[in-house]
Amino acid sequence: MDRNLLYAVLSSQQEKFFSPQTLFHREMLPKVISLLNLKLPLIITGVRRCGKSSLMVLIRDELKLSKKDCLFVDFSDERFIGFDHQDFQKINDYLVENNYSDHAFLFIDEAQEVSHWEKWVNRLKEAHSTLVTGSNSKMLSKEISTTLTGRSVNLHLEPFSFREFLLTKKIDFKEKSFDFKQQALIRKAFLEYHQMGGFPKLILSGDETILKELYENILYRDVVARLGKDLEKPVKELSAYFLSNISEKVSSRKAGGLAGIKNLLGVKKVLNAFENSFLFIMIPKFDYSIRKQIQNPKKVYCVDNGFVTVAGFRFSDNEGKLLENLVLVELKRRSKEVYYSSDKKECDFVIKEKTRIVQAVQVTWKLTVEDRERELSGLLEAMEKFDLKEGLILTNDQEEEIKRDQKKVLVKPTWKWLLETD
Q1: What number does CATH give the domain 3-156?
Q2: Which residue blocks in 296-367 are alpha helix, DSSP H?
Q3: Cβ-contact 284, 296 below 8 angstroms
Q4: How far is it, in rounded angstroms, from Cα 1 to Cα 80?
Q5: Terminus of the chain with fewer CB atoms < 10 Å: N or C?
Q6: 9-21 pLDDT tens trace
Q7: 320-422: which CATH topology?
């Protein structure tokens, strides 16, 4: 890459990084600041536009870094086309020639767009603190970890949590009890969040077309571009099917039939690309046999409810499916190891810690007379199987306590559960 062009890009990106921006607090910020004290490269992954770049600005402000104390490099900028591994040294030269601090902090955005970024970061770590972000889980691959000699810290960022969403709306939720007016505001905000999700740019603008554009961007840049144009049609069709059938069990064979892909290896490549882009989350059925876990169908969820709303087909039970999707994303945000349980009955989620299942969760929009026993029996079966004394049913707004044979089931509004700190 031409040195003058590279320097011009770095200069313009730095100016933009320090320009005034509308920012909202991220709950991950204190943890990031604490981890930076380890003096190891910090890698933050997450779906495109979930707020990784804005988090970098929050970190810059928290550390009180000036323009000469840090450098921001965004490799998703199309002007980096033609950049190769020899150009990393030119960035090092730019720091020296422009009188940056000897130990300037490097913010490296969307690193997966260039090859061998990990070798550069490995060379930098003796003199510079580095924070690297990316929109692909391959950034955490074994090869990259080996290059970094295992000495890096990894975090994952999701779009706004409900707590963060309320902060953007200036709605107070920190009191343990809410008056009628406060509760009404929170419940109204929850219904919006349940439908439209937590992508920062959507919340700032309120324009749904942003979600459609973002969905297409992820699909083409992070899935189709990596698999090849030959798979564009099956990728689009399979993605649309998943968004319209959130939480459905899907095997590789079934996915191949839906997408018209006969080669099982090709199907697995598509499913892996969906997961690597963080667009979809695949939840396995719990089994004590790892082989059976791999063989059993997985339940498919989406990273954000907004995509389901704007790009999926609507059905009568969509409210419940959206609620289940929202709960799954929150469980992953809380770093839970999540499975579904299915024997005679089904339980939506069971949570594993170390070697045992510690919690069973059922999700339903409304616990009606008609489906009450079905929801309870699936949960109670999982509680019995994993020797749990307490279970949880998350709903839109119902709250009660049910006791069955020495077992307790808490029925709780999802919005209240979302406000709890885990």
Answers
A1: 3.40.50.300
A2: 305-311, 318-333
A3: yes
A4: 8
A5: C
A6: 999 999 999 999 9
A7: Trna Endonuclease; Chain: A, domain 1 (3.40.1350)
